[in-house]
């Protein structure tokens, strides 16, 4: 049984709850354990994963969050840099699934966060699980 750390950027409570439901369900259905920590926003997610990875306590990581476009260029910064940070960590052989939504409005977020619709939280968890499998395959 593996253990995954879910790192959620809790910027919108109701949307995060939906993403968490999807991710946790996917991990439990695969027969593994999970722990969740919360950070202020998407920009803090990669750093939190990097810190947690140093502990050696987790086999995989799921990044969750919602970035909704506002009036300024900050949307691009938050969206692109959180994704870039996660990609850099994955290139360092961390098993990560990225479930940080980057959307234009709440309606787009709701459709993608709900487990009964696009289930992006579950999708991210399954991506992390698959990367864990691949790391095991290539390590052996
Ligand atoms: N606007 C959103 C943010 N912004 C906050 C940043 O992620 C970060 O926490 C802040 O700049 C301090 O370093 N974060 C989200 O997750 N979603 C948003 O819509
Ligand atoms: C994605 C964001 O950072 C956004 O919520 C911030 O809104 P604004 O660009 O109007 O300051």
TrEMBL record:
Gene3D superfamilies: Lumazine/riboflavin synthase (3.40.50.960)
Location of the active site: 74 (proton donor)
Annotated residues for binding of 5-amino-6-(D-ribitylamino)uracil: 11, 42-44, 66-68, 98
GO cellular component: cytosol; riboflavin synthase complex
InterPro entries reported in the protein's UniProt record: LS (IPR034964), LS/RS (IPR002180), LS/RS_sf (IPR036467)
Matching CDD domains: Lumazine_synthase-I
GO biological process: riboflavin biosynthetic process
SUPFAM superfamilies assigned: Lumazine synthase
Pathway(s) per entry: Cofactor biosynthesis; riboflavin biosynthesis; riboflavin from 2-hydroxy-3-oxobutyl phosphate and 5-amino-6-(D-ribitylamino)uracil: step 1/2
Source superkingdom: Bacteria
One Pfam match: DMRL_synthase
Binding site for (2S)-2-hydroxy-3-oxobutyl phosphate: 71-72, 112
Entry GO MF terms: 6,7-dimethyl-8-ribityllumazine synthase activity
Keyword entries, A-Z: Riboflavin biosynthesis, Transferase
EC id: 2.5.1.78
Catalytic reactions on record: (2S)-2-hydroxy-3-oxobutyl phosphate + 5-amino-6-(D-ribitylamino)uracil = 6,7-dimethyl-8-(1-D-ribityl)lumazine + phosphate + 2 H2O + H(+)
Similarity section: Belongs to the DMRL synthase family.
PANTHER family from the UniProt entry: 6,7-DIMETHYL-8-RIBITYLLUMAZINE SYNTHASE, 6,7-DIMETHYL-8-RIBITYLLUMAZINE SYNTHASE DMRL SYNTHASE LUMAZINE SYNTHASE
Function: Catalyzes the formation of 6,7-dimethyl-8-ribityllumazine by condensation of 5-amino-6-(D-ribitylamino)uracil with 3,4-dihydroxy-2-butanone 4-phosphate. This is the penultimate step in the biosynthesis of riboflavin.
Stated name of the protein: 6,7-dimethyl-8-ribityllumazine synthase
């Amino acid at each position: 049984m593996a253990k995954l750390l879910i790192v959620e950027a809790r910027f919108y409570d109701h949307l995060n709850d939906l993403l968490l439901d999807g991710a946790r369900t996917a991990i439990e259905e695969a027969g593994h354990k999970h722990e969740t920590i919360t950070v202020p926003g998407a920009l803090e997610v990669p750093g939190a994963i990097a810190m947690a990875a140093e502990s050696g306590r987790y086999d995989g990581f799921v990044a969750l969050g919602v970035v909704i476009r506002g009036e300024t260029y900050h949307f691009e910064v938050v969206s692109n840099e959180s994704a870039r940070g996660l990609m850099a960590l994955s290139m360092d052989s961390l098993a990560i699934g990225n479930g940080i939504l980057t959307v234009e409005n709440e309606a787009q977020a709701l459709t993608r966060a709900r487990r009964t619709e696009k289930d992006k939280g579950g999708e991210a968890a399954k991506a992390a699980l698959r990367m864990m499998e691949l790391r095991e395959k290539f390590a052996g």
